[in-house]
């Protein structure tokens, strides 16, 4: 017996599960009262490492948790602005994209505004196991770090992807390696007056923001940006390709052949990965230009190089850089490595672990994001934000969250989860 039983348990109080909580409150109040969200942090915390004062969201404020599903919702970003007394100022700014710090505050406001769905903080999930009754999957048991357990019929995983740390850097001193998700906290603990040598790894938006911000946060540092690409490029952001981020495009993408999905993802990659927002690109180039004009030679960019090895040497890290054009090798010594390397394309650890517990060799989901279990089941598990290969490039973004919450809730309420015969769906390797 679990210490507590609920009908629906959602793990992680990020945007995905907050969108689900809003949908529950608006569309299924009875189920909402028997639903629980658990969050390991002490508050809703969205991209805390990258909440730079001037960082803008790349997504329109209209693509919030609910507006594309229900424009009249009290949980909209516009209502948040009204409730906090900032609507006039935001409208006067004349921008579709809010500051990232505003989005983070909107998510906290949404969590505080929930009236039916319970949200508990400081509850870390350490294990999830299936409950079998006579060979039928009938529920889930979630174990928390304090040893307590929560039983549920429905389980929704919204923990996000695992951070990506290049294999070559995993053996060096982790105190000197900082992923972008940890930047604000880790850099805030360093002395500001020391001439740190800093290497920023990556060629996308995160790396660009790290390179820009570290010059302000550590004013005496000497940053070097290392990337394997030929140089920084802006996001491809035409209004035509942006239509592939519409919630309505998910149906079209999901119905396509696997090889067609792969081609679409490859062609859409410059719209979301390995690109830099135009405003950041301009600011970054001005930094480099002024550095050259002043003669300081403080800033350096090394393009078309791979990091082929790394080692600790006393109080510094030594990186081996290989020029992929010529094969020439050089050493770069640094005090600190900042990683703008994003997130692993693999299924998150929690999902892979759960698949093992069920006995699945592959992770696959239905169109409504339900984990496919090849045995009879009256329970269901849903996966947020990790289904890019089957649901499109917008899957991890705010663009589809309100509609995805509606899809999941509809699947629960219509009883489509009552799978008494095995279900098949396009497989995604669980590696």
From TrEMBL:
SUPFAM superfamilies: FAD/NAD(P)-binding domain (SSF51905)
Cofactor requirements of the protein: FAD
Molecular function as annotated in GO: L-lysine 6-monooxygenase (NADPH) activity
UniProt KW Cytoplasm keyword: no
EC id: 1.14.13.59
UniProt cross-references to Pfam families, sorted A to Z: Lys_Orn_oxgnase
The keyword NADP is assigned to this record: yes
Record's catalysed reaction(s): L-lysine + NADPH + O2 = N(6)-hydroxy-L-lysine + NADP(+) + H2O
EC top class named in words: oxidoreductase
The protein's annotated pathway: Siderophore biosynthesis
Alphabetized UniProt keyword annotations: FAD, Flavoprotein, Monooxygenase, NADP, Oxidoreductase
Family to which this protein belongs: Belongs to the lysine N(6)-hydroxylase/L-ornithine N(5)-oxygenase family.
Protein name as catalogued: L-lysine N6-monooxygenase MbtG
Organism for this UniProt entry: Dactylosporangium siamense
